[in-house]
Structure formats: C-alpha cells, structure tokens
Amino acid sequence: MGLKSGLKEAAPFAAMVVVEWGEVGMVTLAKAALNTGISTFVYLVYYNSLGVVLLFPLFIFRTYRKKQHPLSLALLFRFFLLGLFGRGFLMFGYIGLKYSSPALAASLANLVPVFTFLIAIIFRMEKIDMRSPSSLAKSLGTVVAVFGAFVVTLYKGPPIISGTFHSSLHSQALVPQNSNWALGGLLLTIGFFSAAIWIILQAETVKQYPEKVTVVFFFMLFGTMQCAFISSIVERTPSSWTLRPGIAMIAIIYSAIFGVVLRFNIVTWCLHEKGPLFVALFKPLGMVIAVIAGLVFLDDTLHLGSVIGAAIIAIGFYTVMWGQAKERKTWSQATLVDENLRTKI
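Structure tokens predicted for WAT1-related protein (345 residues):
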C-alpha cells in the first residue's frame, strides 16, 4: 500500500520532468525551423491542426467508452477562452523566440511561477497566511526556485565541463536572425503571462469538468481555429503556406505529437492532481534542462553558475512540495475529525 501511494505521489513529478525535457526539444526545433524562413503563423497553424487531427480519435474513443458529462454553452465559452490564452501564449512566445533565442525563452519562462502564484492569490486559489508554516514554505520556496533560475541565467562562473557532441543546428539554425532582444523579451513576457492565466483557467476548468481528454480536445480545436483565422489575415501570400521537407516539417510533426497530444494531456492531468502552482513551478527547472540539453546536443559548456542555480532550484522546489504536503495532511486531519464528530452526533 505504501509503495502504491509513493508511486502515485511520484508520478506527477516524473510527468512534469518529461514535459520540461520535451519542451526544450520543441523550442530548439522551432527556432531552427523559424530560421529557415517559415512563417511563425504558418508553423503554428500546421502543427496545431495536425495535433487536433491526432487528438480526434482519442476524443472519440473516450467519448464512446465512457459516458461524458453534458456540455453547456458556459463550458464551451470557457474552452474558447482556454484556446485564446493558450494560443496567445504560443503566438507571442514564438514571435518573441524568432527575435531572440531559446536561452532567453527558457530564462523568461521563470516568470510563469511568479505570475501564476500572484494570479492564484488574487483569485484566492492559493491562501497565504504567514503564520502558517505551509504557506510560508510555499511562498519562500517559489521565490527561491525563481531566484535559482535567474542565477543560472545571469551568473556564468568558471567552466566546469565542455560539450563534446557537435550538432549542425548549433552553427547556423539557432543563431538569431533579425535579432531584436528587447522586442523578443517583451513578446516572450506577454506570452508567459498568458500562459500563467491559461494554467489557472485550465485548473479550474478541470475541477468543474473532469473529462480531461474532452477539455484538451475542445480547447485545442478552438485555439487552432483562432490561430488559423489570425494567420489567414497576416499571411495572405499563398507561397507562405508551402511546406517542404526539412527541419520545418520535422518540427511540426514533433510539436504536434509532443506539444499537443502528449504535453497538454499530461499537464491537464497534473493540474487536476496537484494544482496550478505545482505545474508552474517546473518552469525554472526547464532552464536547468536547457543547460543540460545545450551541453549534450549543442556543444555548450557547463559553468559553475548553472550548478549553483540548479541546487537553489532544487531547494526551492522541495520547500514548496513540503508546504503542499503539510497542507494536505492538515486538511486530511481536519476532514477526519469533522467526519468523527458527525458520526458521534
């Protein structure tokens, strides 16, 4: 029983680590694809459309296998908003990526936990009581984790290990073209704020409507329609929509399979199991993963700052996890006492 409970607790952690590793690969491939000349809007429409097509059989299978809760107009409107904020994050994010680099995108992703935590407090999804050890741990842990991620970004330090595997992507495809660091950073920041709103809204939606595959399918469907509408206005030249074999096609297929079918289902499940703060807290971890991926695949060098930052992130993460575990234990004990009182009455 203890082993089963331990595996259940470890599953969301392992799932989010997989998501962050996959996102680093997704951003790296996307940057390479965008630098070959494919339009950001065309890229988004193609990979999201393919993702919806791949999701459709799973949606049909789940619908016929399990009796679904009825869909209301209010719920469909919520799916529409999820699509709007979810695709808004992608549009601002990928346009910002085009003007900057994967490294800047990974570092600014550290703002997601801050935005999410603040929004969760404003909408009273997270309660802060500085007299409570659990609330104090969650607050301090979030700040520490984000601080650690910025240490990775801002403090290089002396080199420790040099990468040995050289990739052809490193030489040209990942070098920013038409670089505008300030504009790219601003667009990325807007995109990550939109991502924080999406995380909060998705967590609340899954609470109200627990059919996770249905939620993901409809929000992706609405989001893709919104993306296609905007893209058709921006990209009116037919030649812009021509897709040729190469890195762009590889990036589209990878993003559709991982970014749509796998990532959103995993994240939605984790939001239902652990809440928005847990999911958002893995964004700083993505910075560490980006450093590791750069070392292995892009011939980068591991510096002392990366190691120190990773250690700080780990401390912050486990502090928040302790706070959440403490809260759950307190809540379970209070529920048990309440049930005992009702039984005696």
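The CA atoms of residues 67 and 185 lie 45 Å apart.
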